[in-house]
Amino acid sequence: MNILIVGSGGREHAVAKSFARSSKVKRIIVCPGNAGIAKQYECVSLSDHLSILQFCHAEDVHMVFIGPEQAIAEGLSDYLAKSGIAVVAPSKQAAQLECSKMFAKDLMIRAGIPTAKYIKAFSKEEALKAVSHFSYPVVIKADGLAAGKGVCVAQDSCEAATAIDMLFAHNDGYESSNASGAVIEEFLSGWEVSLFAFCDGEGYQTSLFAQDHKQIFDHDLGPNTGGMGAVCPVPKAEKYRSEIEATIISPILQAMRENGTPYKGILYCGLMITKDGPKVIEFNCRLGDPEAEVLLPLIETDFVDICSAMISGNILELDLRFSTNTAVGVVMASKGYPGKYEKGYPISIRRTNTEGIYFSGVAENESGLVSAGGRVMCIVGVGNDLTSARVNAYANISDIHFDNAYYRTDIGLRSNDL
Ligand code: AMP
Ligand code: GLY
């Protein structure tokens, strides 16, 4: 079959590699992809929903996998599904679980799902008043999509006031598509882990746990980024799996059905394991990046079968199997990210096996691949335990060079003790 993958990052590169492992797949096309992905897979640039649909018809595309939340929020999934295309992504309505923090929080409370206490605010004044009901640190979130930049953990009233000012001023720090509202919430202490559920609108099966490293610097210091590295699986989280399924995933999917917005697709549950048990930090309507780069290589079940089962409603019959290996992914970024950074530096790769390389912010000029974004690529090492996966990931990195490259040296070393 022919597959179209929508998106342009390391996550979509990982999705392409997963489909490529399936004997059922004849052709993989990534839209728009990037210059690195284009070394391995066909990439096309299609500017709007109609051109994507026309491409699918003209090129006999059987399945479309949508990677980024923005495309899902814009209704691409509904648009293609309406025309009979098999789409791996939730509907626009179901994607509110990620696209509106208020929608997600209200539904969680109605369904009795453990999450941080919160107050909704629709103006600067309401937000400042809401903050006074919490102790510090307090968490301030823009209501809409914010490309990973919509959350501020404010340590004191000064930081809170600045964050609220920025949020309601539609400032750069909050590139929210819907910054007319904010959620002010209680700070949860504990350790973070993510769990992905493959959902078919009724049933679901969960994946391995993964752990992102969001801060820019080693030891989880500095500002948050889209993710600087990830590890999969997270053995320590296993003892919480049945509790997470029973108190979080089953009830949210039931609440989505009752709300008339059944969830079909991959559900990303961002969790905080607190001393009172697992609580939801956020839901996302997609795979994470760089979580996809460490989770997908460990899936042994044919990826087409997983996607087909979500679409056709047979997820409970799927034999979902995972490797017992560990994967560690380290993001190579441009120095300065998540703030200002320089780009255009030539990338040299001294290795022929590119299996563990997932390209994000890269472009091509006369000299070959050059850095072109904040997160440039994710380098993954797989091994039979965490130590060997880490060794492999960092050995792979030593084969790659570009000026101004920056990466964390401690991916996978975090202590998970409460
Ligand atoms: P989010 O975009 O909601 O995942 O938030 C980004 C990051 O902010 C999370 O990965 C957490 O590290 C942190 N965060 C968000 N909400 C909370 C909370 N209620 N308590 C503690 N940390 C939080
Ligand atoms: N790595 C976090 C995310 O994809 O949202």
Features:
418 residues; alpha+beta; nine-stranded antiparallel beta sheet; 12 helices; 27% helix; binds adenosine monophosphate; binds glycine
How would you portray this structure in words?
By secondary structure, this protein is of the alpha+beta class. It has helices at 10-20, 49-58, 69-73, 76-82, 96-99, 101-110, 124-131, 157-168, 241-258, 291-295, 303-312, 386-397; strands at residues 2-7, 27-32, 42-43, 63-66, 86-88, 118-121, 138-142, 151-154, 182-186, 191-200, 204-212, 215-217, 221-224, 229-232, 264-274, 277-284, 326-338, 348-349, 357-359, 362-365, 368-371, 375-383, 400-401, 405-406. The strands form 6 sheets. Strands 10, 11, 14, 15, 16, 17, 19, 22 and 24 form a 9-stranded antiparallel β-sheet that branches. The longest helix has 18 residues, at 241-258. The chain is globular, with a radius of gyration of 20 Å. The model is unreliable at 171-178 (pLDDT under 50). The structure holds adenosine monophosphate and glycine.
Explain the layout of strands and helices.
Blueprint: E1 2-7, H1 10-20, E2 27-32, E3 42-43, H2 49-58, E4 63-66, H3 69-73, H4 76-82, E5 86-88, H5 96-99, H6 101-110, E6 118-121, H7 124-131, E7 138-142, E8 151-154, H8 157-168, E9 182-186, E10 191-200, E11 204-212, E12 215-217, E13 221-224, E14 229-232, H9 241-258, E15 264-274, E16 277-284, H10 291-295, H11 303-312, E17 326-338, E18 348-349, E19 357-359, E20 362-365, E21 368-371, E22 375-383, H12 386-397, E23 400-401, E24 405-406
Parallel strand pairs: 1-2, 1-4, 2-3, 4-5
Antiparallel strand pairs: 6-9, 7-8, 7-9, 10-11, 10-15, 11-14, 12-13, 14-17, 15-16, 17-22, 17-24, 18-23, 19-22, 20-21
The chain binds adenosine monophosphate (AMP) and glycine.
